[in-house]
Amino acid sequence: MRDQRPKLLRKLEARVRSRLGLPSPWMSTSLLGRELVVRWGTIRPETDYDDAWLYACLRHAEVVFDVGANVGGSALLGLLCSNIKQMVLIEANAEALSVAAQNLIRNQLSSRARFVGAFADETSDRTVDFWTIGTGAAGSMFQGAAVTAARAGSSQRVPTTSLDELAERFAVAPDFVKIDVEGAEGNVLRGARAVARGGKTRFLVEMHSPPELPMVANAQQVLAWCNEVGYAAWYLSKGVKLESPDLIAHRGRCHLLLQPAAWAYPEWLRGIEQSTPLPGS
């Protein structure tokens, strides 16, 4: 049965369960026209900015690294696409990653998935303070991006990994990487230099601007990385190449497509606007 209770009541129950260390309840929902049973909060009822862009990129990929996988919403979307041969979920919040695994297993979608509990970084030889609470989607290395966790003093020491190290360990070359890491975008990219230099990988990057790293500074890091590895950045809401941080300086959150500089902007992304609903929704 679908949960027909008011959204506020469901949120209150989720908070109480989280405080008591109880898992979120299972609920029936649908995604891309397929009926699923998932933990409450996995599938957003409202279309997010990047859902349609993400789906389009997933439809043109075979090996995907889902960086900042949280409870597996993006992984479900990807693994419902028959073209995806392997998906690696990378998440620093062990509780969230456990829920992601449950969601995929419950819906018979785990056979093409790998799970990595770590913070995606430039190197694989350190630990970081990761600010999070429960399965919160806003977990971050920056306290300013994880306000609720910071107020509660809730952080964990988690090991780091890099995308280059994972690609070597699993003997795969991702052709698509989704990055949603609440301000640590530059860290992830600097750990993916070898992946990028392979010349076959697109990155969909959700850009953030925590107080510790304003959007201009974050964009400067990303553009510097692009120059280093021979990539170009495209500002998805406008469908234009990002030449300067000034174009997105006013944004608190936005989305960039990074791909080899010689590649044209994908025709299959043209016409997809911010917040376009998914097929079957």
Report a brief summary of the structure:
Helices cover 29% and strands 24% of the residues.
Structure, described:
This protein is 29% helix and 24% strand. It contains 9 helices and 13 strands. The protein is globular, with a radius of gyration of 18 Å. It starts with 6 loop residues before the first helix and ends in a 21-residue tail after the last strand. The model has no long low-confidence stretch (mean pLDDT 94).
Order of helices and strands: HEEHEHEHEEEHEHEHHEHEEE
Between the first and last Cα atoms, what is the distance in angstroms? 18 Å
**How would you sum up the global shape?**
globular
Low-confidence stretches: none
Would you tell me the overall average pLDDT? 94
- Beta-strand level of the residues, as a percent range? 15-25%
Number of helices: 9
Counted beta strands: 13
* Helix/sheet category: alpha/beta
Rg over alpha carbons:
18 Å
What level of helicity do the residues show? 25-40%
Q: Major sheet: size, sense and barrel closure?
A: 8 strands, mixed
- Strand numbers in spatial order across the main sheet: 5-4-3-9-10-13-11-12
